[in-house]
Design goal:
By secondary structure, the protein is α/β, with parallel strands linked by helices. It has 7 helices and 4 strands.
């Protein structure tokens, strides 16, 4: 579980660098893929949704669209919980100590407060109404709205599972195709 983030504790775990530098150039060198921002997107579910949204806010020059389905958007700032101590320790190994530079540099809420809404990719966000992630996703949508980002947010029936996500894919891809090649 990398959360598409360069690890604070394990310098060899440079997953953000891998996606941003290596993966994109590897795909473009091997396949007839478009090589410009206006034709590049990133999407993910849960932790992958966190990564997609974070990459879009942190590297807006790379993508025209980011989709986050049930994004675990609050992972960098989740408080300590004795019930999830293993998860909390793992998150700290990725993001560093509480309020560290690494934590702030990878927190979508911090990034959304400083990113230029006019340069940020279009964001497609969705979250199930029975998910524990819904409050954090609502909060991010509210912040994006306050700052005039180009985005859509859908609260939908369902929980944190594939039956809910499969029902959202058609809308996500519709939005993706509307924004590919478009100037935000």
């Amino acid at each position: 579980m990398s959360l598409i983030t360069n690890s604070a504790e394990h310098p060899q775990d440079c997953y953000e660098d891998y996606v941003v530098h290596d993966l994109i150039s590897d795909v473009e060198s091997r396949f007839p893929a478009a090589t410009v921002r206006d034709n590049r997107a990133v999407m993910g579910v849960s932790m992958g949704g966190f990564g997609a949204v974070k990459l879009a806010l942190k590297h807006p020059e790379l993508f025209c669209f980011a989709g986050g389905l049930s994004s675990a958007i609050d992972v960098p700032s989740r408080p300590f919980s004795i019930h999830r101590i293993g998860q909390w320790r793992h998150h700290r190994s990725i993001f560093g100590s509480w309020n560290s530079a690494t934590q702030r540099e990878n927190d979508p809420f911090v990034l959304a407060r400083t990113a230029d809404p006019g340069k940020t990719p279009y964001l497609f966000l969705t979250c199930g109404q029975q998910e524990g992630l819904l409050p954090a996703n609502r909060n991010l949508a509210h912040l994006l709205q306050e700052r005039h980002f180009h985005f859509e947010f859908h609260e939908v029936p369902g929980g944190h599972d594939w039956s809910q996500w499969n029902g959202r894919l058609e809308d996500c891809f519709r939005s993706l195709f509307e924004h590919l090649g478009a100037k935000n």
